[in-house]
Amino acid sequence: MTSDIFFFIAVGFCAQIVDGALGMAFGVLSTTSLLAFGLPAANASAMTHVTEMFTTAASGLSHAYHRNVDWRLVARLAPAGMIGGAIGAYLLANINGKVIEPFVSAYLMAIGLLILYKAFRPPTRREVRDWAVPPVGFCGGMLDAIGGGGWGPVVTSTLVGRGHDLKRVIGSTNFTEFAVTLTISLTFILTLGWSELNSAIGLIIGGVVAAPFGAILVKRLPVRALMVAVSMVIITTSAMRIF
């Protein structure tokens, strides 16, 4: 697959630009692209998360530098997300890829619909003490591992929908995602082995190059228009794989 390195670089770059600006969608966009490229569901999710070890670190540091991170929110999200992510990765790695692939595509399409719904939902303000933060982190981590993406769409969308400050949520979920992704990636490596994940290098290159730009774009781009565009891409590609 070395001849396709530029495809993986392009996927990683585009997905990370969107993720850094929106606080979601790197996993769902890259996994959807890899599934369309013909990779098994477990391998696509594993490659995405190995890549995200690098992109989330770069993106999280960029958001911290621009003061978009709420450290209290990070402290409540990270432990629950790591536990959920490890459980989801272990389950996916031990399920037949052909069996799980239609369900993964259906899940990704549901995430696309969720993003579209959240784009037009009026926000209501809530505090970081919100009781739902740890459960949302746990579910986000588990679904992220199983679907190859979903931490941002589930966690960011839910917390923004519950009234948390948009920019703080985007920065905090991006920063927290590194810990969640590291846990998921280590679980995949222990169960699948590294030899199955060599092609992640292209995604890593594209994602790391794009990461610094996301934190800048989050202050400049209209969030609703970007959410609608991302949801349309995810819904369309996932529906094609299902039908």
Report on this structure.
It is found in: Cell membrane; Membrane. There is one protein chain. The chain has one domain (1-242). By secondary structure, it is mainly α. The model has no long low-confidence stretch (mean pLDDT 78). The protein has ten helices and no strands. Helix 2 runs antiparallel to helix 3 (41-65), helix 3 (41-65) crosses helix 6 (133-147) and helix 3 (41-65) runs parallel beside helix 9. It has helices at 5-22, 26-37, 41-65, 71-93, 97-119, 133-147, 151-161, 166-192, 200-217, 223-242.
In a nutshell, what does this entry contain?
Belongs to the 4-toluene sulfonate uptake permease (TSUP) (TC 2.A.102) family. With 243 residues, the protein is mainly α.
Number of strands: 0
Backbone CA Rg: 16 Å
Please indicate the count of domains: 1
Sheet with the most strands, sense and barrel status: none
The helix-strand sequence is HHHHHHHHHH
In terms of structural class, how would the helical and strand content be classed? mainly alpha
Shape: globular
Helix segment tally: 10
Strand content: under 5%
Ranges where pLDDT stays below 50 over 5 or more residues in a row are none
Round the mean pLDDT to the nearest integer and report it: 78
Give the terminus-to-terminus CA distance.
27 Å
Helix content: over 70%
